[in-house]
Amino acid sequence: MAGPMMRSQIPGAKPQNTKKTLKRIFSYMAEFRIRLFLVALTILASTGAQIAGTSMLRTVIDDYITPLSTSYDADIMLGFARILLLMAVIYAIGAACSYACSRIMLMVSTRTLYKIRMDLFRKMEFLPIKYFDTRTHGELMSRYTNDTDAIREMLSNSVVNFASSAITVSGVFVMMLYYSWHLTLLVVLMLFVMTKTVKMIGSRSSVYFRQQQAEIGKVNGYIEEMIEGQKVVKVFGHETAAKEDFHKITDSLRNAAASANTFANILMPIMANLSNIHYALTAVAGGILAIYSVISLGTVVAFLQFTRNFSMPITQISQQLNAVLTALAGAERIFGLIDEEAEADNGTVTLVNTAVGGDGAISESDCRTGCWAWKQPLADGSAVYSKVEGKVEFNDVTFGYEDNKTVLNGITLYAKPGQKIAFVGSTGAGKTTITNLINRFYDVPDGKILYDGIDINRIKKADLRRSLSMVLQDTHLFTGTVMENIRYGRLDATDDEVVAAAKLANADSFVRHLPNGYQTILTADGANLSHGQRQLLAIARAAVADPPVLVLDEATSSVDTRTEKLIEKGMDKLMEGRTVFVIAHRLSTVRNADAIMVLEHGQIIERGNHDELLAHKGEYYQLCTGMFELS
Fold first, then answer.
1. Given a cut of 90, is residue 93 above it in pLDDT?
2. Quick one: three-class SS letters along 242-284?
3. Residues 7 and 402: beta-carbon distance below 8 Å
């Protein structure tokens, strides 16, 4: 197959606008305004309880502990018990509010991630095939796993901690200023030092965290590739080389992760030590002020506790910086995919079920009739219907997967309704590319492709592809029953129709010998089936779709000669009245084609039926006489 080269791409790691990225994340939380309001209330209540409880320390020491230390007084002791009980109630309320906040935010974050994943998957389903050709599976999977988990961590923990820390810092600062402006000056000085430290280390860490996210995508892609290709690895004894390649990739990840976490992890001990230094300086300064009766002993104790309450949120912010940087890097990658340009579809012509009246007039039907027509809207709001016949034409089509390299050059061909057209030629000649263009997996820059006389660019892609059915050389089966995998060709097919399609493809016999017949669960892309059996199910899937046009890309390449003959008998019935495009290497597959196109270097160098091409004694003759397979 001539196609684009797979290459791993690392998206731009740094968000161009951090505020815009955060705003977009929070836009997914718009419907949870009431819950977020409750979160805000609980944060205010919990931080308020913490500040209120701390501020009561001055009263406890100055009004109760100090007097009781000199002489016992029953009234003072009773008041002391009451204020301790009040403090316990306040702290209990704060703890309850913290718990409620965590629970509510957890529900909000999981629902938000659900919406992000849905948007991510929805966009992925509408991206062009070219997007997947140029990115590894692991890179895309990391968006659903690592990147979304990073956002979850930020929403469920970091956001609450940041909000709580900001409120705590503000409230505590006001209380400290009220208690002692002298000691508050020392706090401002230490705050400046802490802020500079966080900024300096955080900026260095963010670079490596973005690199780490990109390297994770590479590792995931390589692991997935190795898992899928384990048989090939073992057959060619490539284990040692695979380990060496994996070592190189993981070594890059290790270096990026080590650098990122080195800067992120040293923040906590640095901030903790700065906090301890601040606490010690405050204790010394407070003690001096208390000796000279500038402030009371209770004020010093309360202020020291406020100092802890003030530095702790800053330390928490530094701890959460790791999660925030990872989440922002992941969010950029997610939104980058969501913002990718979807597959363009400007078609207006649709495929509809029709009924034909006694006078031959075609009318649209709401139920499945087995008769299809193209519905072409007119400017006045009416529509004309034309029967789907399966006539396909290529008019001077030129195409390349890359701008500077063409795969097809001036291809002109036609397929009359009910004809079987075969493509043969060497690997890379452009055979599969032609079938990809019929499906509009790619749009042609030059030339036209007509389907029943209609430019395929005018036909809606979903309707165009519904009128076609493909059997690819590489069969893909989904996790589910055999019945469900065959029904994938047409979701409204009945069980009887599925069985009939399996019989037509000669798959019914082996299916019934499976442990649970048609209800046998297939996993890991049908790993419990042989390659030939998987191919038979793919043919059955195409049969149940019952389309007017069939595309068979080496559909019988993985079955033995005896099974191939049985399949061809069923396929002959399936192909009656349908246009069929066949890509095949085996001579027996193309011998009875109405027209055979011989391709070389993206051009049709010979065309005709089997006998005509043999008589011409050209390239096809050489292929047939030189070997039994057209490879």
1. yes
2. HHHHHHHHHHHHHHHHHHHHHHHHCHHHHHHHHHHHHHHHHHH
3. no
Residue 563 reports pLDDT greater than 80 = no
β 350-356/362-364 pair status: antiparallel
> DSSP per residue over 512-525, as a string?
HTSTTGGGPEE-TT
- Phi/psi for 121 (5° steps) reads -70, -40
pLDDT tens digit sequence for 316-357: 776 677 678 778 888 888 998 899 888 888 889 998 888 877
Sheet (strand 392-399) strand order: 408-415, 392-399, 446-451, 454-455
Give which of 531, 524, 511 is closest to 480, Cα–Cα.
524
Buried b (16+ CB within 10 A) or exposed e, 355-380: eeeeeeebeeeeeeeeebbbbbeeee
SS3 of the chain: helix, strand, coil, percent, to 5: 60, 15, 25
Amino acid 3: pLDDT: 40
Q: CA-CA distance, 550 to 556, in Å (whole number)?
A: 14
d(CA 336, CA 324): 18
The CATH architecture to which 18-338 belongs is: Up-down Bundle (1.20)
Residue 488 has pLDDT above 70, yes or no: yes
392-626 under CATH 3.20.20.10, yes or no: no
Domain boundaries, the chain: 18-338, 350-387, 392-626
Helix (H, G, I), strand (E, B) or coil at 406: coil
